[in-house]
Amino acid sequence: MKEHWGGTVEPSGSAPEEITVESLLRELDADASSDEATVRPTELLEDALVSLDADAEGFRFDEDIVKHSLDELLLVLIAARADGTHGKQLMDDLDQRFDARLSPGTVYPRLHDMDAEGTVAVREMVRTKEYTISDDAEAEARVREAMLQHLAIGRFLERALADGDLF
């Protein structure tokens, strides 16, 4: 089988199996356990979708919204791995968990900026760079602030829809 961004393609040319958020979450949990993740971001995502009463099979993230929250998502994904992670793994995580196929030209500059700010530490490896959180308090504060901003907007929209008289 050959992997590609949307699922698995059979070498015989047969149709690929249907890919759902649930199947990706199961697959990602298997991947995360092999990478010794301290927290499984997939479980966090699954819990979030359940708490929103979202249809996990029909739900898809908007790539622009993922890009808007990229720094905070990267911080959570980096923090979730006990021994650090590399950029390719982070891009794979974003693709698999958030339906966002972001280019290295989008992800690496953000990692570089967070390194320059002192929030993320970079360790040069032989053929790659490994990223870890260097300032836990700053990383947590950034993630918390982004969460509050998103929740406030979401609650505003939720109440507008619940009113029933607007649309």
From TrEMBL:
<protein>
    <submittedName>
        <fullName>Transcriptional regulator</fullName>
    </submittedName>
</protein>
<dbReference type="Pfam" id="PF03551">
    <property type="entry name" value="PadR"/>
</dbReference>
<dbReference type="InterPro" id="IPR036388">
    <property type="entry name" value="WH-like_DNA-bd_sf"/>
</dbReference>
<dbReference type="InterPro" id="IPR036390">
    <property type="entry name" value="WH_DNA-bd_sf"/>
</dbReference>
<feature type="domain" description="Transcription regulator PadR N-terminal">
    <location>
        <begin position="79"/>
        <end position="136"/>
    </location>
</feature>
<dbReference type="InterPro" id="IPR005149">
    <property type="entry name" value="Tscrpt_reg_PadR_N"/>
</dbReference>
